[in-house]
Design a protein that fits this description.
The complex is a heterodimer of chains A (115) and B (113). Chain A is mainly β and 115 residues long. Helices cover 0% and strands 46% of the residues of chain A. Chain A contains no helices and 10 strands. In chain A, the strands form 2 sheets. In chain A, strands 2, 4, 5, 8, 9 and 10 form a 6-stranded mixed beta sheet that branches. A 4-stranded antiparallel beta sheet of chain A has the order 1-3-7-6, with no helix packed on it. The relative contact order of chain A is 0.33. The model of chain A has no long low-confidence stretch (mean pLDDT 93). With 113 residues, chain B is mainly β. Chain B starts with a strand and ends with a strand. The mean pLDDT of chain B is 93. The chains are: A mainly beta (115), B mainly beta (113). Chain A binds chain B through residues 4, 31, 33, 35, 40-45, 48, 50, 56, 58-59, 91, 93, 95, 97, 100-104, 106-109, 111, and chain B through 4, 6, 8, 32, 34, 41-46, 49, 51, 88, 90, 97-106.
Chain lengths: 115, 113
């Protein structure tokens, strides 16, 4: 079946503008994660949704960042009043109860450039 | 200090070499230890995982975890040019089976023919 998809694949915006990034998880996956990867760095956890539970927002770097998820499907990550330090690849992952690890499957990411 | 430290390299080896990649960590609550491989402009893919301490082997790849030293390793035998990628270690705590991953910085590996 299809993997995790993200759109857009690339986004260039001007400082101060708002951006919305979209993630379509694998069908049936109840958990969805957002990570940020700055150039030459590892992945930094942002937020995690699991079913109907309250999301774990502990990784959001500021109140300019927010995310929503509709049921167990699409999620959007919104960054308001973008800053140059927000430039990064934003990766989405989803997981299910299959297997012992509840493996996270990653999408290809959205490359955000803030000018 | 970061929770997970990984030497970013870059690492360049000839084809057929044995490659050793390592991470150290500070959080003793980590119980699941993973290695992801990331090709350029792609999302990471899970390569191997280990629960708690011990070794795990899968083909040319061996993962080792030493919880007493808070140190994990990935060995690649008979390295191939197709192994050229960024290798990321990742960890999470036990308890709930879902949960955020904490990643190392990633090591860039190039295997040249």
């Amino acid at each position: 079946g299809a993997g995790v998809s993200q759109s857009p694949s690339n986004k260039v915006t001007e400082k101060g503008k708002d951006v919305e990034l979209r993630c379509d998880p694998i069908s049936g996956h109840t958990a969805l994660y957002w990570y940020r990867q700055r150039l030459g760095q590892g992945l930094e956890f942002l937020i995690y949704f699991q079913g109907n539970s309250a999301p774990d927002k502990s990784g959001l770097p500021s109140d300019r960042f927010s995310a929503e998820r509709t049921g167990e499907s699409v999620s959007t990550l919104t960054i308001q009043r973008t800053q140059q330090e927000d430039s990064a690849v934003y990766l989405c992952a989803s997981s299910s109860r299959a297997g012992a690890l509840y493996e996270q499957f990653f999408g290809p990411g959205t490359r955000l450039t803030v000018l | 200090q970061k929770e997970v430290e990984q030497d970013p390299g870059p690492l360049s080896v000839p084809e057929g070499a044995i490659v050793s990649l390592n991470c150290t960590y500070s959080n003793s609550a980590f119980q699941y230890f993973m290695w992801y491989r990331q090709y350029s402009r792609k999302g990471p893919e899970l390569l191997m995982y280990t629960y708690s301490s011990g070794n795990k082997e899968d083909g040319r790849f061996t993962a080792q975890v030493d919880k007493s030293s808070k140190y994990i390793s990935l060995f690649i035998r008979d390295s191939q040019p197709s192994d050229s990628a960024t290798y990321l270690c990742a960890m999470r705590t036990g308890g709930t089976s879902y949960g955020k991953l904490t990643f190392g910085q990633g090591t860039i590996l190039t295997v040249h023919p």
